[in-house]
Amino acid sequence: MAPPAAVRKKGVVLERGIIFGNSASPLTKKDVAPDPQHTHKWCVYVRGVHGEDLSYMIKKVQFKLHESFVNPSRVIEKHPFEVWETGWGQFEIQIRITFVDPNEKAIQLYHMLTLFPPDGDPSAMQPPSPALAGATKKPVVAEVYEDIVFNEPTELMYEVLMATPQLPLQKKANHQFTAQAEHDELKKLVDTQALVLKEIEAHKAMIARLGQELKDCEAAVKAS
Description:
By secondary structure, the chain is of the alpha+beta class. It is built from 3 helices and 8 strands, in the order βββββββαβαα. It has helices spanning about 130-135, 155-165, 180-224, and strands spanning about 15-25, 40-50, 60-65, 75, 80-85, 90-100, 105-110, 140-150. The strands form 2 sheets. It has a 4-stranded antiparallel sheet. The model is unreliable at about 120-135 (pLDDT under 50).
């Protein structure tokens, strides 16, 4: 049953920054994995930009893993909002965030699970060679900063957010936003710009063609 309509704060826009992504590191001889082909242990998460508990505004987070995992849909209802697993493949994870006020629409994010450094990326769904799997002993971190925008939030959500103000984000060493994520975002912007320019040119050509057809019609009318 849908929640009853809530009164909203007209003209109010609030933002809260979060970090979502994953960390991964090669399995060691001491680690126990359910499958001998597994090469890495990893954690996918939703966190505050300063590592703070987000349960004041987030009710639950659903992580949808690859279907090959047992119980691929993981729902986390308390801090920390994270899932630990082992594996060898890279795949897209769907992240659905539900807020403490059910009248606020849940948001859906997508994250590509990253196990390997950008210069050592194997095929996403093929087991890597042992040499490649252990190419780096350093943890790989792939995370993205996201601004959640509450446009005219409910009164309840407004009170919740105002009661816990967020400190401004400062990119530090422990905020390891990946160069690949920034590259992908820039590529999306460039591709979108190219598409818009292509559409503009197509419309210009259509307008020119219609203009010529109009002139031809006017000339035909005058000649008749």
